[in-house]
Design brief:
The complex is a heterotrimer of chains A (122), B (625) and C (172). Chain A is built from five helices and no strands. Chain C has a seven-stranded mixed β-sheet with strand order 2-1-5-4-3-6-7. The chains are: A mainly alpha (122), B alpha+beta (625), C alpha/beta (172).
């Protein structure tokens, strides 16, 4: 009974999650760095530049641009510096994969530390 | 006048740390097992003089003695007293003086209150700590002297950056410094323990209260910093994954790992070398953070005025520190047999350390990667919130689950326990009820919700059990409870936050799906050193028909000419209404940002509960002694 | 074994510290001056005085073009203006001015006072077209070669050194 409940709940959550939707404009602006204001996102910034970018992003969304196309457009003009989410390029491979790699290494170390005892117990 | 006093006091402090090193070295050779009185006396003297030097600078700020360039640059005679006082540690030089005060204070406290009947260990700790004190004094006196003079003496000071004039920010640096500078004492103790070959259990018991203490203050420091960012920066957020924030998070993660693994060491179950490494790393990360912040190589919201020579000094210090500690570690560390039973308490603590170190590495890589890329290839990239959220958030789910289940297991033994128990089903029901209201669709967020509720309920259950059965570790229960709540409220806040951005003219109305906003009026007048523009807004909640009056502000300061945007926040128990406005150039329009931020107070409260567990840990130690 | 470990750790750390040492000299403030070599987008710009627009593709096909973004409210623009006048005498170069977020009256007054170095004058009242050029603060100046590749970007006012650099590129 409990197991059925458990499985059905997770199934429900999983199915329900497929339709995740987000406000695209908000998501894009939160991912853009305001170049003139020390580490703020475009979404948070009140600067003149940020306000222009906001209306350009609005235009692009209106013209049917996809999220990635807007990032591409802006990083062509301003460099990858403008993106808070570094694109998955060759020079960023280490940034994206090194953490997972190190996590796995840590797991292996712990596995060996605790495995030794199990063998002993037998 | 004051300047001479300050420099004299500092020189005496330097002299005493030199003497302390000298005397301690000599004492190491003698046979008797008592630390002589003169070492205690010199340590007290050192504390008195370093505090005097700090009070001298404080006096300089309070009486506005502009003959000291540090006072001139960071104060103003019309500034309120609180900010004159906080100006003492508001600048690079002053905060470095605070650093040294805390180094000395911990050296003193360790000598007097950490009575562990191991003279060699005690003396070596004092020696290492005084090496740190001496080096930082040299840095202070020759590179960043807070007492340097200015001639001719100006009549008025330059004032403090307006966004730094805030009560939360006045107490933020001292809290944070006690946290991460306090970690210096177990850095010194770790090196001392290696050289003097201290018994492992003793070492664990000696450093435990210091780790809890620094962790407690670090947690509070981060909390106060976030509160400041939320109320003062006017962006509506409280954590931005900014490099400066990251530098305070990195030592915190290590401290968290450390006081978990100390528990294992205390029971003589191994991890000696690992605890030593963590102790060394914590202070090292604090210095790395200081380097990143003070050298100015990072582009951040919080950057201090910077100067490359500072960076060079801190880097040199860091190199010496790291290389000599690694050398000492390899020379003196002994190989030990670490064996852990699968599914024992120590196994789960190991897993905790695994996660903490992973979090640390993510933050470290995210912070340093742009620097490396820029230096090696000249490519500039930004690593911001989307990166950290993407990499870290999924790992919170297993962490929450392990925090719930781990404590159920016993030391050494390896019996399996029922994990999905009644508490878990209660939590699932609560989750489903919440899901019914909030209708969240993101899988990661939902799983985070389930497991944070599970942790919270389980902790409540343990709390109840703790009263019947004294063997349950109450400080663990409280801290885990706080962490569960924190993640729960951050998730709920993330789901239910509303953010609306639009342009309005005076007199106009904006009709949103849940709110009606009316821009009633605008006023502008001149206050002291700035011009203020205050908007008057009525916000009607269409559901419950409650009206709120909010008055966001734009301030234009004249010296230097800067604009700041003051958010107007209506904070009630459950939810904050957060309004900012900014002018749109060449038009009558104003850009208005309305944010509804539910459960902000609960987020602050959760962190506070989290930190309480640390206090309890300190008191428990004292009671035992 | 222990020794090897020590050597590896030291080597890694020396590398890290070396990078940190070198990073002290990194430029602290970001600008887009390094983003050159890309092809210019085709952008429609509004004429400053007459009605209508022109496309950047259609103009001066066999010449170097210098785009200058300016406004009358920008003090450094005033400072660099005499350098633009100097460059406007160059036969191989056409200067296109883009008047940025400005009022027409004060822009006209500005040119009457200081002279008009621009072959074509365009305007960008809401600043949106300038995003296509990667502008984030003015004055900014972009040099385009005959195949409409971006050769140089100058963020901030042009000084005499920049003028000479542009001349030498153009006359090559």
């Amino acid at each position: 009974m409990k197991k059925i409940f458990l499985i059905s709940t997770f199934f429900f959550v999983l199915v329900n999650s497929v339709y995740a939707e987000v406000d695209l404009r908000d998501k894009i602006l939160k991912n853009l760095r305001c170049l003139v204001c020390q580490g703020q996102t475009m979404s948070d910034s009140n600067s003149d530049f940020a306000q222009t970018i906001k209306s350009v992003v609005d235009d692009k969304i209106g013209h049917g641009f996809k999220e990635d196309e807007i990032y591409k457009f802006l990083s062509d003009k301003y460099g990858d510096w403008i993106l808070f989410n570094p694109p998955l390029k060759k020079e960023n491979y280490l940034l994206w994969f090194l953490p997972y790699f190190l996590f796995i290494i840590g797991g292996i170390v712990i596995y060996y530390l605790s495995k030794k005892t199990q063998i002993k117990r037998k | 006048m004051l300047s001479n006093f300050g420099i004299t006091f500092l020189s005496i402090t330097f002299l005493t740390s030199f003497l302390l090193i000298y005397l301690s070295f000599n004492e190491l050779k003698t046979a008797n097992n008592k630390i002589p009185k003169k070492i205690y006396n010199f340590s007290s003297l050192q504390l008195i003089f370093t505090i005097l030097s700090f009070l001298t600078l404080l006096a300089g700020f309070v009486v506005s003695d502009f003959s000291m360039s540090n006072v001139f640059e960071n104060s103003h005679s019309t500034k309120p007293l609180l900010y004159k006082i906080s100006g003492t540690w508001g600048s690079h030089e002053g905060s470095l003086l605070l650093w040294i005060n805390i180094l000395v204070l911990f050296s003193f406290l360790f000598l007097f209150y950490s009575n562990n009947n191991n003279k060699k260990f005690q003396l070596y700790t004092i020696i290492f700590q005084n090496f740190l004190i001496g080096t930082f004094l040299i840095f202070l006196l020759f590179n960043s002297n807070p007492f340097s003079l200015l001639f001719p003496v100006p009549n008025e000071g330059l004032g403090l950056n307006p966004i730094l004039q805030d009560p939360a920010l006045a107490i933020h640096p001292p809290l944070l410094y006690i946290g991460f500078v306090g970690s210096s004492i177990y850095f010194s103790a770790a090196l001392a323990a290696l050289i003097s070959k201290v018994e492992t259990k003793l070492f664990a018991r000696v450093i435990k209260p210091w780790v809890s203490l620094s962790w407690f203050f670090q947690t509070l420091g981060i909390l106060v910093g976030s509160v400041w960012a939320y109320y003062e920066l006017g962006w509506g957020g409280f954590w931005f994954w900014d490099p400066v924030e990251n530098s305070s998070l990195m030592p915190w993660l290590l401290m968290t790992a450390l006081f978990h693994s100390v528990l294992v060491l205390e029971r003589r179950l191994g991890l000696y070398s690992w605890v030593i490494i963590l102790s060394i790393l914590t202070f090292t990360m604090s210095v790395v953070g200081t380097f990143l912040v003070r050298s100015g190589i990072l582009n951040s919201v919080h950057t201090f005025a910077n100067d490359p020579s500072r960076g060079l000094f801190i880097l040199t210090f860091l190199i010496l520190m790291v290389f000599s500690s690694i050398f000492i570690f390899f020379k003196y560390s002994t190989t030990e047999k670490n064996t852990f039973k699968f599914l024992s308490k120590e196994f789960f603590i190991l897993i905790n350390n695994w996660f903490m170190v992973f979090f640390l590495l993510v933050v470290l890589i995210g912070t340093m990667y742009p620097i490396f890329l820029d230096t090696l290839f000249g490519t500039k990239i930004s690593v911001g919130p989307p990166y950290y959220n993407f990499v870290l958030a999924p790992f919170l789910i297993p962490l929450l689950f392990l925090m719930t289940s781990g404590p159920k297991f016993n030391w050494i033994s390896s019996e399996s326990k029922k994990i999905f128990d009644l508490v878990f089903f209660i939590s699932l029901f609560i989750f489903l009820a919440i899901l019914f209201i909030v209708k969240e669709k993101n899988l990661i967020v939902n799983l985070t919700l389930i497991f944070s509720i599970y942790l919270t309920i389980q902790s409540l259950n343990d709390f109840y059990k703790a009263f019947k059965n004294k063997s349950i570790n109450l400080s663990r229960v409280i801290s885990h409870f706080g962490f569960g709540l924190l993640i729960f409220f951050i998730s709920i806040n993330h789901i239910l936050s509303i953010e609306k951005n639009f342009n309005l003219k005076v007199g106009d109305e904006k009709n949103l799906s849940k709110f009606l906003i009316k821009f009633e009026n605008i006023e502008s007048y001149k206050i002291d050193n700035y011009q203020t523009i205050i908007g008057d807004f009525q916000i009607l909640n269409k559901k419950n028909l409650i009206k709120k009056n909010l008055k966001p502000e734009i301030r234009i300061y004249d010296q230097p000419k800067t604009m700041t945007y003051e958010a107007s926040i209506d904070s009630n128990f459950f939810s904050d209404t957060y309004l900012t406005m900014s002018n749109v150039s060449d038009s009558e329009l104003f850009n208005i940002k309305l944010q509804i931020k539910p459960f902000m107070n609960f987020i602050w409260l959760s962190v506070f509960i989290l930190s309480l567990g640390g206090v309890l840990n300190i008191f428990k130690r004292i009671k035992k002694v | 074994m222990k020794k090897n470990k020590l050597i590896i750790i030291y080597a890694v750390l020396i590398f890290i510290f070396l990078i940190l040492y070198l990073s002290l000299d990194n430029k602290k403030i970001y600008n887009t001056e390094d983003l050159v070599g890309k092809k210019m987008n085709e952008v429609d710009l509004l004429y400053f005085e007459s009605e209508g627009t022109f496309n950047t593709r259609e103009i001066f096909k066999n010449k170097f073009v210098l785009f200058n973004f300016w406004a009358s409210w920008c003090a450094p623009c005033r400072k660099e203006h005499k350098n633009l006048i100097r460059l406007s005498k160059n036969k191989n170069l056409e200067i296109i001015g883009v008047n940025f977020k400005d009022s027409p009256q004060s822009a006209k007054k500005f040119l009457e006072e200081l002279g008009n170095p621009f072959s074509i004058l365009a305007k960008d009242p809401d600043g949106k077209q300038s995003i296509n050029f990667g502008i984030y603060g003015i004055p900014e100046t972009i040099l385009i070669d005959k195949d409409s590749n971006i050769v140089k970007k100058y963020v901030g006012p042009l000084n005499l050194k920049d003028v000479n650099e542009i001349r030498s590129i153009v006359e090559k």
